[in-house]
Each structure stands twice: as C-alpha cells, then as structure tokens.
TrEMBL record, chain A:
Annotated PROSITE patterns: ABC_TRANSPORTER_2 (PS50893)
Superkingdom, taxonomy of origin: Bacteria
GO MF, one example: ATP hydrolysis activity
Protein name as annotated: ABC-2 type transport system ATP-binding protein
Residue stretches making up the ABC transporter domain: 5-230
Keyword terms: ATP-binding, Nucleotide-binding
SUPFAM superfamilies: P-loop containing nucleoside triphosphate hydrolases
UniProtKB/TrEMBL annotation, chain B:
Protein name, entry field: ABC-2 family transporter protein
Superkingdom per UniProt: Bacteria
Keywords: Membrane, Transmembrane, Transmembrane helix
Record has Membrane as a keyword: yes
Regions annotated as coiled coil: none
The UniProt record lists the keyword Electron transport: no
Segments passing through the bilayer: 12-33, 62-80, 89-114, 134-155, 167-185, 205-225
Amino acid sequence: MSYDVDVNQVTVKYGSFEALKRVSLHLESGKIYGLIGRNGAGKSTLLSLLASFREPTEGKVRIGGREAFENRDVMSQVTLVYETDYSEETEKVKGMLEAAERYRPHFDRQYADELVELFNLPLEKQVKKLSRGMQAALNVTIGLANRSPITIFDEAYLGMDAPTREIFYKKLLEDHAKHPRTIILSTHLVSEMEYLFEEVVIIHKGNVLLQEPMDRLMERGASITGPDQVVEDFCSDMTQLSTQRLGGTKSVVVYGELTEEKRREASQRGLEVGPVSLQDLFIHLTSGEKGVEIDGTSK
Amino acid sequence: MELRNKIARDITWILLSWSAWFVPILVIVYVAFKIMGGEVEINQQNIDQVTFFTFAYHPSKIFMLVIGIIHVSGFLPFFAKQGVTRRDYFFGSGISSVLVSLMLMISAGFVTLVENILFPVIETEFIISAEAPWYLTATVFTLNLLVYFMAGWLIGAGFYRFGGIGGMLYIAIAIVMVLFSSMFWEGEEKHPLNCPFGLSNLRDLPPSVSLMGTFLLIAVMLWIVRATTRSVRIKMK
C-alpha cells in the first residue's frame, strides 16, 4: 500500500493567527525529505497534522488516499519524533522500547537493541534521569526501530552532541536504504544535514516557498571563486547571497541559474564555479518579509 | 477490539501498580486508627464500629478522582505517540476504569474478609445500610468509584483542552455530577447534604432507581469526556 502524503489547501489557525495558509503539498512515499524553515515558520504545525496530533482548520490531509486525522490505519503507520519533556517520566528505557514494540506494527526489536548499544543507552535507567542528549538518542532509537512507513523527525537531534548526531545520520541513511520509507527531517542544522535530503521543502511564514529535489535546487545558485576584481566584475549583475575574501581571492555565492554561456565565460576568465550550499539558499530565500519569489515553482 | 483490549490492559496494569501502593497504605492507616480506638472519627463515623470496607470507601473515591484528573494529560499524549487514536484511547480507558474500580472493591472486600476472621467488628456504620445485601453494597462501592473517576477524567479533559478558565467550568460540572451521585446514595452520609435544586426527595429513592440514575450520570460524563477529547490537539511537549 502506498503512503503518499497529500496536503490540500490546508489552513491552521491558532485563534486569529494563521500558522499555515492554504498549504498544498505532495510527498511521494519512500523518499527522505528535508523540511526547513525559520523559527515559527509552521514546520511543527505541518508535521503535527501528518501525525494526527491536530486537525486542520480548513483543507484536507490525506495519507495513502485516506483522510489522516483519527484514522487508526493511518495513525499507526506514522511516527512523529520530537523533543519530549521527560522530566516526569519514571518509566525505564526498556519500558519505553517495550511500549513501542507493543503498539508499532513494524517495530524491529533486534534493530532497536543494536541502536541502544550504539548510543550507549542504559536500559534499566529511568528516562527522566537521562541527559537531554540521551533522551534524544532514545527518541531517535524508537523512531528508527518503529520502521513506520512515514517517520518524522522534528528537530529530533536537539541535545545530541556532534558524534551522536553523526551516528544518527549514518544509521538513518543505512536503514532507509534497507527499508525504504518516507522520512521527513525538520531541521535548523541545514549545512550539517543537507547531504541526507533527496527532496527539500522550504516553508516560510505559513507558506510552502518551494519543494524541489536537492540536485535541482542546487542549480539555483553557484559559488564563484577567483581573483578579487575578476569575480566582482563577473558577478556585478547577479544576486549575491554572501561574499568571502581571503587575501586576493574572493568567493561569492550567487542566486539564479547559471546559463551555459555564463559558465563558459567563467571558465575563460579562470574562475572556479562550485555548488551553492543549501544553507546559503535557505537564508537568502527566507530573508525577506514574504520570502523570495520563486519563478514558476512557487507553491 | 483487540487494540482497545490491549490499551485497557496496559492502562489497568499501570493503575493497579499504583493501587498496590494505595491499598497497603490504607490498611496501615486503618490499623493505626483502630489501635488508637474510639478517639478517631472519620466522616462522623466512629472507627471502632466500621469495617475496612466502609473505611476504604471515601479514600478510594479520592484515589479514583486523582487518577481521573491526571488521566488525559498522562496517557493521551503517550498513546498518540504510539499511533493510537483518541477514540481507541477513550474506549480502552473506559474499560480499564471499570476493571480498576472492581479490583479496588475486591481488594477492600478481601481485606475486610480477613479482618472479620481475625478481629470481628460490630458494625454500626455502613455504606448503604445494615439491611442492604452484600452484592448491592459491592455494586454501589464500585459504581461510586467509577463516578469519581469519571469526574476526575472530566476535569482532566477540560483542562487539557481548554486550559485554566475552561477547566474551571469542568470542575463545576464534575461537582454537580458528584453531588447528584451522593444524593442517589444518601444513606452513605451520616449528615445528609443540604441537597441543591430542592431535590431532597431523592434521598428516599429505591436502590434500583438510584442505580439507574448513577448509570445515567456515568453515561453523561463519558459523553462529555469523549466530546471534549474527540479532536483535541495533542501537545508536543
């Protein structure tokens, strides 16, 4: 059965505040999506809709063609991992894993044990006594071992140190290759996680600004590196996102697709053309009040 | 159905593990009071003249009330995280509340049985009356625990969904429900309440009508809890 996600004209209001404004989105099942947006952009609201944690004020959320909200067959197949307040959770790590095993149809106990070992999780310790990073590792362990057809990590890495995050990313990619499923990663750590994404959704002030495959998105900009003055001349009529100087060398990140002609010219002038980082694009696209207009692809 | 039974089993197990602390503590307090003797009066009842069953009745109601109050915020987000719907949580919890009420009644009954063998009590205070058959007393005990659980559940649901001010309204509803229930079973009160709404004639109702009335109260509270939690937003905390 397919687990394509269809969000159709969805609005979510908190009182008079519109957290999502007539958002439409189609997520084909089986891919790893990066959901990025600034604080308060509406990321968590969107994700909580997919997990049936809340109902849309208007519009429809369908998963596998069926209405998601309060649908047992859908809810049991969606896992939402988020930073949970465990300050009063007296259950032990072991008990939390057992609970997931009891309720999650695809839970893999052996894989969970493997992750527990990898993250050094103490099975007999109460969850409230774990450090924040350990609690995050527990959440991620359950999230991965659930093997839900739709698995959402909403800034699930918060509190984890860099090496632990690396383990998480590595395991996520490995397990996704073995057991393809839709994984949605909502994050602020764009530069650190961009290599994980197959497709990117940028959300800004309650609107979906763009949804594109990662490689296509990378063509929306470029970094131009070379001698200071040459780079300046070359980029003078382009939208510049950021500039770095080192001695007489300058590197400028530009926004906008580079035509073949431009690329040839760069090469003739001895300039190096490199890829743009998602981080730079993200900062640029979400900098204004309404975000940057995306030609033709704006949703 | 299978899923709801599983939910009911899991919640019941947790609540019984709490009861496993509650009942022994109650026994210890009861024994201590018995040792102190006639000086101790509880609900205007002389401790020398009540059995454990009668003694346990009021504290057990409060225990169920507290469980009810923390039920929604404690269990609903947990189950939602496991991919369980609000509807399945509701039915699972409903089944579990009946089981826990029954188990508490049976535990109190068992302790009383042992007590009667070891130190027989000449009772003058009863939950209903001296003439009431044991099964009616047991039913009333269980049903009133359920009423208190439902009242707590109602309050917890109201606060979870609406926060402070809305929650207050749910407290008011719960108080009215509990008042009605105590009017149905006035025999339990040494000094009857001054019944609100001029309904003092409810005191003399036959047990069958009181039972029906209590069932109705439970049904109304269940309906309000379901309506309140039907599409409640699960807080991501």
